[in-house]
Amino acid sequence: MPVTLHLVDKQGWDADAQIRHDLQRIYKDAPAERLHQPVEDFIAEQLAAGHFFGCARFNDRLVGAAAINADSRAWWLAELCVRKETRRRGVGSRLLLLIGEAAEAAGCELRVFSSQLSFADQLLLIRLGYRLDAASDYFALVSPSQGDVTE
């Protein structure tokens, strides 16, 4: 599925009813073990904290998303989820690659805390050619083109 990256922050959330609808539907489709709170609370907490969502857009609809907490050195990725009807079509893989490119363009690494990775998430990253570098309490997601991670 040819998707594009659409970043959604608090301002974008407040301004667009379709974005609000789509993002809530994405996370309502999440497996029960993925979110440990109601969807509305999860999204509200992310946005209130100044975080944003990297979303996969297809035909003017959001079909996948990941919560992102950006700091000066890294984009911290959490809760990657794809709508049920678009799973197994490469949306999650493409979204992850697009977020990685955007983070790199912003001069940041893409990272995820080790406790955030399910077995399925780890398999997806390995399949995409990412190496998991456990130098700390997080994994730096380094594409083969970026080389080794150094701190």
TrEMBL record:
GO terms for molecular function: acyltransferase activity, transferring groups other than amino-acyl groups. Gene3D superfamilies: 3.40.630.30. InterPro entries: Acyl_CoA_acyltransferase, GNAT_dom, PanZ_GNAT. Residues 10-151 form the N-acetyltransferase domain. It comes from the Bacteria. This is PanM family protein.
